[in-house]
Write a structure and sequence with these properties.
Elements: H1 2-77, H2 81-85, H3 87-97, E1 104-117, E2 140-152, E3 165-174
């Protein structure tokens, strides 16, 4: 009797396994079309996201270049009072450091000297004698401020985003004696 039951159970188990795997294959075939549809719907979204990341990276890259160019101009002017008054030298320093600024248009460079004494407000433009007339214990202070500004055009045009984005960086440094 025991052998008879084994024979009856065995075909039932195989039938169940076959039935389950057939069901899984049928479900997989139905999901195959859904996967292609999901890919087709998400591809434009992912490409738009990728283009946005590229544009953001370009904007950050040019922001760093503008900041470095402004810092280079301020460092040139901060060497001494004569260099601080040399606007052509400051512009050459900015242009020399910002040689990769070809993506920027209408770059403007301005420098400003501010003078004063410790414990007092700074004024611009500096008086003829500078801040040499400071009352003791105060000592003269001279600062150079360099501003570099320009605009960058995005690689792609997006609705709602302007066709040009402004960039600006201002660096102030104390002028050495």
């Amino acid at each position: 009797m025991g052998a008879k039951t084994k024979r009856q159970i065995r075909p039932l188990c195989t039938a169940r396994v076959f039935h389950r795997s057939a069901r899984r294959r049928a479900v997989w075939r139905q999901d195959k079309g859904a996967t292609i549809l999901e890919l087709a719907l998400l591809t434009p979204l992912l490409l738009g996201l990728l283009m946005g990341v590229i544009e953001f990276g370009r904007f950050m890259y040019f922001s760093i270049l503008v900041a470095n160019a402004a810092r280079e101009g301020a460092q040139y002017g901060a060497r001494n009072v004569v260099a601080a008054a040399d606007t052509t030298g400051i512009q050459n320093a900015v242009n020399g450091d910002g040689q990769s600024l070809t993506g920027l248009t209408s770059t403007s460079i301005s420098s400003l000297l501010e003078c004063g004494c410790t414990g007092a407000t700074l004024s611009s433009p500096c008086p003829v004698g500078g801040a040499a007339g400071c009352v003791s214990p105060g000592h003269p202070l001279v600062y150079i401020q360099v501003t570099v500004a320009g605009t960058i055009k995005p690689m792609f045009s997006y609705p709602g985003i302007p066709t040009s984005l402004p960039l600006s960086s201002t660096v102030t440094m104390r002028v050495g004696e």
